[in-house]
Amino acid sequence: MAGSKHFNRLTPAEAERLAMLSEECGEVIQAVGKILRHGYESYHPADPSTTNRDLLAKELSDLVSVMQMMDGDFSIIDAKDHDAAIAKKLRYTHHQGGEA
Ligand SMILES: [Mg+2]
Predict the structure, then answer these.
(1) Residue 69 alpha carbon to ligand 1 centre in Å
(2) CB atoms within 10 A of CB 52
(3) Whole-prediction pTM
(4) Over 70: is that where the pLDDT of 3 sits?
């Protein structure tokens, strides 16, 4: 056999970090979906103390944490690139010019 490496050449640690990234991205998407359906201030009946806004903030925090763990896997763009990305996105938005 030509070796035991997986075809994607990921180490187990890299694969695990990608799985964590995928999981957190899914949780962010789920939280956004709940807000779009029920609003920021809505909450699950089993936990009235946690709003959908809180859930989104938590999931985004989880996502940033995993991104920090992946620092050696790829280079995360720096702040000036964020500014350029925002400027580009604003050219194609309809409601980001002033009101909340
Ligand atoms: Mg999470």
Answers:
(1) 14
(2) 21
(3) 0.85
(4) no
